[in-house]
Structures
1.
Amino acid sequence: MLELYHFEPAANSMKPLLALSEKGVDFVSRQLNLEGRRWEQYSDWFLKINPDGQVPVLVHDGKVITESTVINEYIEDVFPTVPLRPADPYWRARMRIWTKFVDEYLCPALTVIGANFATPFAQKIDKAEMNEILSRIPLDGPRKKWATVSSTGYSEEDVADARRKLKVTVERAEASLAEHEWLAAPTFSLADVNAYSMISGTERVLPDALNAEVSPRVHDWLRRMEERPGVKKAMSYPGRMRPPPPQAA
Amino acid sequence: MLELYHFEPAANSMKPLLALSEKGVDFVSRQLNLEGRRWEQYSDWFLKINPDGQVPVLVHDGKVITESTVINEYIEDVFPTVPLRPADPYWRARMRIWTKFVDEYLCPALTVIGANFATPFAQKIDKAEMNEILSRIPLDGPRKKWATVSSTGYSEEDVADARRKLKVTVERAEASLAEHEWLAAPTFSLADVNAYSMISGTERVLPDALNAEVSPRVHDWLRRMEERPGVKKAMSYPGRMRPPPPQAA
């Protein structure tokens, strides 16, 4: 029995959705926050599954695996038939340098950028209700984020720094894609899975940062990703985030 | 040919030193910043090896592997005879959750705490010399850190937050060691290697945060670590950092 607790097919939730779809592994989808339900990741029933109050979570025969990047390595360890880690240890290391960079450098930057889009919505929440929600958030990182989002939002300086980090990431990806067909190696890997999951919405939201002129190789890589049956399957789960329409060459 | 570029046996440099020592794998030690040489990680010769200007770096038959956590997974992929990853995928995932937590939560906190110890030394450096050094630091994270360290140092608020994060880490480790003999699993793993590398100096520097009363299981785990031949071997490389003297029971 394999169950995946996830949000819409974007960001961290997209990572295992995409890895499982690429591998053709069947799983039971347990999607949170659907149909107007909010903050379900901090509800009592979910905190019993993951006391950190974070999605995605994989439950495999009763064993709970958290952290999207770790989940994808686990999926690879358990279902290796369609490999998403390069066979060569050197390229495997290159893959892990990318998944680490996405987690430690890109993801916090996108959190700041994305959080500010949520500020107008979060500011409308009743103060007492918001404080009650904040009191249920177990990890200090997300709690701080929602405290900021629901009050002042992130400062212009923070957002500018986040945009700079996105630019650095795009430059790194351009350089990497000049060396080989896929992001971290000559073969498709979890680096593509994880980076695409985080970055695919960016093109629509911040077209200045990522387009055919600024980053032709990243632009082409995004188009190749969109054509993959695994990406199409993962994107078929309900969600607000949709891939941008294919652009004419 | 296996070469490891590293600093003294502490923090990120300790991670691969300890993994290789535990495995009994022979390598050529290329230790930087010895005998009064400083900032060698930003020198032209080293930037040719790692353009990020970061240590440790593993060079295996000419192939360059960076990022200490990735290096240790690579060492495991290439030299699996003495395994440092649990055989069971579930415990392997638990191991990776710990190595990720060390990298993303503990390490930045210890950087703030450790950096402030360096402030009196860094403030004495001639401004022009310091600016020249800063101009050679490729990554914005370390550059920002040294700019802060050499001027004002981190604020009291930043240091208090870093100490709080250290406390959270110690509490997590106590809970984890109540479940099994080693940090992430019933068997010794890269979680122990990486966490010990980061945390072993803390006991001496911040005895309030980590001692036999506050954290008896972590205290006992540190003593068990110190008895390991791999730890003794790794600690035999030159360095300022030395393990605390064994305490009477």
2.
Amino acid sequence: MLLCDSGNTSMHFYDGSTHTYKQSVEEFDGLIDSCKVYYINVNPDLETTLQQMPNWINLQSYVNAEKYYDGMGIDRIMACEAVDEGIVIDAGSAITVDVMHQGVYGGGFICPGIHAMQASYANISSRLSNSFNFELDLDKMPKNTQDSISYGFLRLLYGEVMRHNKPIIITGGDARHLHKVFQHATVDELLIFKGMKQMIPKIASC
Amino acid sequence: MLLCDSGNTSMHFYDGSTHTYKQSVEEFDGLIDSCKVYYINVNPDLETTLQQMPNWINLQSYVNAEKYYDGMGIDRIMACEAVDEGIVIDAGSAITVDVMHQGVYGGGFICPGIHAMQASYANISSRLSNSFNFELDLDKMPKNTQDSISYGFLRLLYGEVMRHNKPIIITGGDARHLHKVFQHATVDELLIFKGMKQMIPKIASC
């Protein structure tokens, strides 16, 4: 059995126990035919190919979509499915933040990701073209440019997340960076796969 | 007497009482020689020209720079000079937020402006290419895409600003938009000019 979380540029695979690897969408040749591949996919160009492969099973149709909202990304839904109580931060090209109350979806919001925010400041002015200070003092209003932009991004995100007073779980490619700000959070790089894995008992096993 | 707040693309003039107008930097011919022009300028390409005009007086040298920090924009400083107690939001290409306690600068932070944030979301994914909902319910976690990005920008900014529990004064080209979120704030489009005007008694009058 394999799990696959397919994005716009890369496909992330997980063997369900220990091993994960990534493959670019461009390099994907579809030659995984030894067993079932349970997948989610946000790349419309890839969907037709995946649907034609008899051993690939799209988990999207097994989600109780009524729990979430129309247009919510399936990767974001799977991360939420893995959490019963808590606030889920998926830090990638965008940062999605979602609240789960006793298994019920409580809504969420989206910020641009670390790279996108850095680019946004740099586009406004070369004077704002700085990396973020993830060791920023969150209790002190800044008096220098690097901390001013770091605060304008990280402190505002921190304030909102902490306001919900729930366990925090961070996943996604930039999870380690955000962990410096949310020091008591749990980092779980397999969160989306955990949500996917929970769907499988609903289907015939591999 | 004229006051001039010179930016990277346009020069904003004020006659000190009622009349304001804008001129693009490109169109500027320097032919204002009837009286003194008190100015601030963030455009390095223009500075040499302005310095050569005998009736133009740069107010920057009259600011007590020690109150602020090295690298802080002179327009931002002038807005702060106009406020004794409060939180100053200047909503332009960037949104700067600065705290003043009894005339003392308490630090501040910078977010990308409305246009920059909208572009940032749109660059991440066409699904996030939405205008912001300034009538967003700030007390409710969103369950649709437009509100999710609006919340990720406006609610986070709102939460941080309100935390300081001070009078809020908004200035800048996007002040009217942000006023929908900060409904109890004062909008003062002349705030920078007010700060500049306060400097003038320190210099010989026009």
3.
Amino acid sequence: MSPTSSAAIPQYLDKQRLQVDAELERILPGAGEYPPSIHQAMRHSVFAGGKRLRPILCLESGRLFNGDERSLRRLGCALELIHTYSLIHDDLPALDNDDLRRGKPSCHRVFGEATAILAGDALLTLAFEIISEPGAGIEERRLEVIHDLSHAIGTRAGMVGGQVVDLETAGHTTSAETLDYIHSAKTGSFIRAAVRSGALDAGANPEDLGRLSAYGGRIGLAFQIADDLLDVTSTREELGKSVGKDDQQHKATYPAIHGIEESRRIAVQLVHEACQALEPYGDRARRLQELAHFLIERTH
Amino acid sequence: MSPTSSAAIPQYLDKQRLQVDAELERILPGAGEYPPSIHQAMRHSVFAGGKRLRPILCLESGRLFNGDERSLRRLGCALELIHTYSLIHDDLPALDNDDLRRGKPSCHRVFGEATAILAGDALLTLAFEIISEPGAGIEERRLEVIHDLSHAIGTRAGMVGGQVVDLETAGHTTSAETLDYIHSAKTGSFIRAAVRSGALDAGANPEDLGRLSAYGGRIGLAFQIADDLLDVTSTREELGKSVGKDDQQHKATYPAIHGIEESRRIAVQLVHEACQALEPYGDRARRLQELAHFLIERTH
């Protein structure tokens, strides 16, 4: 029986988040560094209050194989830079046209479209600069992380591919299969890569990597289903971003296709499978299992 | 005395370009690959007829140190993907708002803004996927290439930083110092990194790398001065993109600050210095020296 999310998890997440934020502060150029506007825009979006889910997944995955803490923390921060790049570009008027993100005005609302586009570009670029920094980790592992990650955020069933199909299907009737493609490409593949990156950096063998991939793939999809559910069931204040946007934009969602109850059931089942994949590690995988449960608890 | 561009250089460039294009064809997803729109947009801009200057510089730089041809060619293609990403984003309405690029409609004119933004993102991402591909080269060298290159195209005196200052100074009086920052950051740093990348991939030692950096830095600035001159002196048909845009957008240029004749003199001097930096290699550096001359001959 896999554990449910423990009472201690919010404190644990807070502590991890603060460590990640401190490292992000060291990584990002200062707000006064030339040219200041772009660095202010990057910092605005990175420090707008994210949960740091991807860095924490990377850290916990790497800890399972006794990875180096500093190396994992830097790598985790690079993942957060990539995540923030994707949010900035998604929010642009030409894409989702969202004015609010993480409870604050989105990047282009504050800094204008040109700077927002370039800030996204710069965060993606900085992520690769951080992952490749000298002495960061073992070189061949880092190169494998870059390859794995860049594939996961690219066009071939990766993040950009998912975003394209999401945009193109808005306003049209979408099949359950297409919706699964969108979710697994747009969100799932990057979350899975975040989990894999920690394991890769820590030198996990192929069998271990397979287990972590199974875990990451399932929580990635569960997380997106939870996100769909929150868009239907939350208020703007709870969510810190515009709600009901999926419906307004006629985007396909799990609740729209499968209904709210069935969507919840699928998410619970995915989390169950994710936790099962880690059972060979016994209590050492407890945090990752708790995280899986935590991801969907928000939706109850 | 450094050689001037030989009569054979156009044929040489054609041959190199065809090799690069054949490799780009292998690298880019097919126009029918799912999701097709993004792959068509990426291909539209990559195959719109570029000179492949950065790949050719990478190839020639690596050949000087007996680098592996296939490895250099793949790396060179990654540079071209990055170059194309920067062109697509620069042309967007929020930035330079350019309808014409390399003689064809710019990406957003054909595929819309959303797809153009994502196509740029995807090309940048694919570049890192290619540089990090397994068996591509020696791992520690490839990681160094990624680090060097991502810095050169970032915000700290890199390509994005230059673009930001270029946009922000448009319409204002710009000092010669700021113009040098824009040119060296926006264009020069990436061209320098292209030259360095080939040398790094081929295992050049620090002293060699210093010479190639000196060469790359100077031709990068000379190239941008030549570009400024062409904007003043060419027709739309010759250039394959809108002309006189710099003046219309009140952008700072070398001819505007230094005058046409003085700008030409500076470019010639930079090319002379670039060629001098390679003199220790004698005749083996002839192609790189010819390329330097070729870059500014267009402006006579």
4.
Amino acid sequence: MTTTKMRPIRQTIPLDEARAIIDRHITPLTRVERVPLQQAHGRVLARAAIATNDVPPFTRAAMDGYAVRAQETAGASRTSPRTLRHIGKLFTGQVAEHPVGPGECLEIATGAPMPPGADAVVIVEETDSTDDRVSVFSPVAPQQNVGRQGSDIQAGQMVLGDGEWLTPSRVGALAALGLTEVDVVAQPRVAILSTGNEIVEPGQALAGGEIYDVNKFTVAGVVSEHGGVPVFVRTASDTIDDLSRAVDECLAHDIMVFSGGSSVGERDLILDVIGNRGTVLFHGISVKPGKPTAFGLIDGKPVFGLPGYPTSCLTNAYVLLAPALRKMAHLPLALARQLTLPLGQRVVSAPGRHQFYTVRIENGVAMPAFKASGDITSMSKADGYIEIALDTDVVEKGEMVVVTLL
Amino acid sequence: MTTTKMRPIRQTIPLDEARAIIDRHITPLTRVERVPLQQAHGRVLARAAIATNDVPPFTRAAMDGYAVRAQETAGASRTSPRTLRHIGKLFTGQVAEHPVGPGECLEIATGAPMPPGADAVVIVEETDSTDDRVSVFSPVAPQQNVGRQGSDIQAGQMVLGDGEWLTPSRVGALAALGLTEVDVVAQPRVAILSTGNEIVEPGQALAGGEIYDVNKFTVAGVVSEHGGVPVFVRTASDTIDDLSRAVDECLAHDIMVFSGGSSVGERDLILDVIGNRGTVLFHGISVKPGKPTAFGLIDGKPVFGLPGYPTSCLTNAYVLLAPALRKMAHLPLALARQLTLPLGQRVVSAPGRHQFYTVRIENGVAMPAFKASGDITSMSKADGYIEIALDTDVVEKGEMVVVTLL
């Protein structure tokens, strides 16, 4: 009988210190890829977009009405309209064949190019027409109801800088330049691997002591939500050799996320593997759930060792992994969707640990929903979580708490 | 010379009325599709998920330590430890070969099945071991540090109801049941079509009077952000016949979004097409930008006629289309990402219209960024927008405003 080789976590670091260490070792990706414009939404622009031509490319009518010589409408009113000769119609996509001469007007659609001679548009609501005569009921100033060439974007102008996150309107701005493809920052590829002899792929039958892999799916969800591409690596068994082979496979990607094997057990070997192949930067953080979390580097690539328990794993995926991914992906910090609500029930927190406590929102009140770290339903039945600081032991019923929605 | 056939919008309805009309005519989709679990994230569950077995499937150690008979640890302390005989080790994925007898303990890893005989786990931090002896420094109660079979999910229990939005933890809960595929609500397929003879696909050369299609891309972005699948339909020219053929193509999908052709011009034919093929439910809303917006039904399918101007089109895509899509997709209402900030500059609003005003956030202040409805940079250079109610004419510099982030 050999003695135990279990290695308790004796030292933990505060959450903020863990965040700072991770941040120091995460570098924004420099890899660039070209995507068709219709796939650019949500991506990050890799190079500034410079306009090669004016938008709009010509001076155009900004309203439906009549293109006129503005000075000829001076003093027009309902009681004393100006009358102009209607010389034709111009639809969008057409170009005027004749200039608008003195005493003339051209019917024009919003977006059609202004005809030579005219310098303003009288809106249709301020006119009346019979045969070839148009009565104008109010004066317009030069350039009124006209969109000048280049007024939106001028040729040579930087339309979007590099690093801009491509919201719908920004993709629209690139379309306005006539672009069909765009260079964007690559999305971090995240190798996800659940470790442990007990972990079985869903769909297979469970033998004694076995459970289905949950963390692979929850981590993949967080990765997709925060700009990464999840890559599933085959489950590794609890041997240094097998885990080390798995690491070789993972090194083809930008970042590695292991779950399980980072606690105190003899076969929690992830830590040894990170140590053998690279550097462990921390192991153990003062949070609950999620204490047995490790972070390190192998060949310069970040490695997260998340706890095997589903709720612990997912909490730290949100709190530590997501910001790291956003930094790698050049994405703006996620603005958490938060609500401030009264707490529905007194909560006692673990002393000396920053605690994440899941809650359900019921009738405008945050009701504690936390079960156990090993319970996936602790999160799946929750609407969000509250945070209780390291130095707070109790939050009373009725106190206002900030709920971060899941 | 024929007289004008321009048809000014004489009547507009308030934004809330437009929203209510749309809501009355939007039905949540009932179409279901089966997807692999790794693609279920973000989708909506179509049928309740009932557990076919317990989770965890066996009673297990919740901590690393020693499986013991709890009563034998009564009174244990650092000064007066209880000593037990170490009979072996149990890792995860293994099943104990022998029960734990009186005076015995079994080293056990978190997640390993509890051996018969033992009813609690003493955590490793509260023990010391030499050879085959383990000293226990504190007592445990029965079931302490033990996760009971079915404590997370019991066989027969409804784990997730139909209509639940699949966040990462909910996908995890489905994985815990051993599922590999899941029935989800179909995503609304949105046929998107830009109308107008002046509209040219990016990548082609512009002739006189032509501009690049912008709205197709901005609307597609909004559609993807709100649970829909954008489907590009070829650009239609400004003839009733061509638009009607385009409608035939669109009817294969769940919802149609046209842009352009819904204003007052003679060739703004979308309205005629909706009227000929179905019913126009409204045309013209009291918002700025975005007044020339129409909504109707063709063969029971919703049709949006959005303005051709990029900012007007995109504003109404956010304000009217997005909620409609979320309802069709069974998605929860989007919790807008909002900030309350002082306004950096006085804004005068259009009387009698609910106004959306784009802003940039600069040094904690919301600075007006609105250019013109035809300008895509009015949105692409903005961080968000503020809303000015119908009955408000002026918002003074320094007043607090709610910024909805884009």
